[in-house]
Design brief:
Blueprint lengths: L5 E6 L2 E6 L9 H16 L5 E6 L4 E3 L4 H5 L3 H19 L5 E5 L2 E3 L1 H7 L3 E5 L3 E3 L13 H9 L1 H10 L3 E2 H6 L5 E3 L4 H13 L3 H14 L4 H16 L2 H11 L10
Parallel strand pairs: 2-3, 3-5, 4-6, 5-7, 6-8, 7-10
Antiparallel strand pairs: 1-2, 8-9
Helix pairs in contact: 1-3, 5-6, 9-10
Length: about 260
């Protein structure tokens, strides 16, 4: 399948998806539709175990939604656009495969929301972050008000969203919004290296860990522990669990098949 605004390369069980709308890779309805399509395809591809998501060039990961498109929409139209974007972010967040955002530059508004939907985030030391929506008379509409507060807490989420000020890569790491900061030349390669390490791990175990963490954050401890137990049992029932334990006993590297 060919895409107008996306590039995709697959190597060593890692898919690198690049949003390609230079110079700042804004998100419009077509980009959201293509992201939905490509994540469906990668989900079904057994040769792909991890996904890296980035933007073209070094100026921006994604510098927000396409304001030109948004400005021409009425309430019905913007609700349709938001519905498409929210569904894409949920699809990324709930993907059976780990998704790593390689943030090579600006991550603003919808771009930051997209990054927050990923499992892990690696950014350039030149990256800048912000939710500037209130300065435009709107608020984040792609899950930013919800996902941000789960990472930084409600008070800081309100500060970052109310004021909309730009903040640095170092500040993003301090707030645990990103996992690692590297030079702009290293950001994509570092994300690929992380993805390749994860691609060597048992896929079902990673999937179950993701289900337990994602869903456990929305519930009380007792319910979360019940969920964890069910996910543990699912992972324990796999051939990969048998291989992992046997390899440990035999002091060799395991070979996981995804079952």
């Amino acid at each position: 399948m060919s895409y107008e605004f996306l590039l995709c390369e697959i190597e060593n069980k890692v898919a690198v998806v690049t949003i390609n709308r230079p110079p700042v890779n804004p998100l419009n309805t077509r980009v959201f539709q293509e992201l939905s399509q490509i994540f469906d395809a990668l989900e079904a591809n057994e040769e792909v175990r991890t996904i890296v998501l980035t933007g073209s060039g070094q100026k921006a990961f994604v510098a927000g939604a396409d304001i030109n498109e948004m400005a021409g929409l009425d309430v019905v139209g913007v609700n349709k656009m938001n519905s498409v974007s929210r569904n894409v972010f949920i699809k990324i967040e709930n993907s059976n495969k780990p998704v790593i955002a390689a943030i090579n530059g600006l991550a603003l508004g919808g771009g930051l929301e997209l990054a927050l939907a990923c499992d892990l985030r690696i950014c350039s030391d030149r990256a800048k972050f912000a939710f500037p929506e209130t300065g435009l008379g709107i608020i984040p509409g792609g899950g930013g008000t919800q996902r941000l507060q789960k990472i930084v807490g409600q008070g800081l989420a309100k500060e970052l969203i109310y004021f909309g000020d730009m903040f640095s890569a170092e500040r993003a790491q301090e707030l645990h919004i990103v996992n690692k900061v590297v030079s702009v030349e290293e950001v994509v390669q570092t994300a690929i290296e992380w993805a390749e390490k994860l691609a060597q791990k048992p896929p079902v175990a990673l999937q179950m860990a993701k289900v337990a963490i994602n869903n456990g954050s929305d519930t009380d401890l007792e319910t979360g522990l019940i969920l964890e137990s069910a996910c543990f049992a699912t992972a324990f029932a796999t051939d990969d669990r048998k291989e992992g334990l046997q390899a440990f006993i035999e002091k060799r590297e395991p070979v996981y098949v995804g079952r």
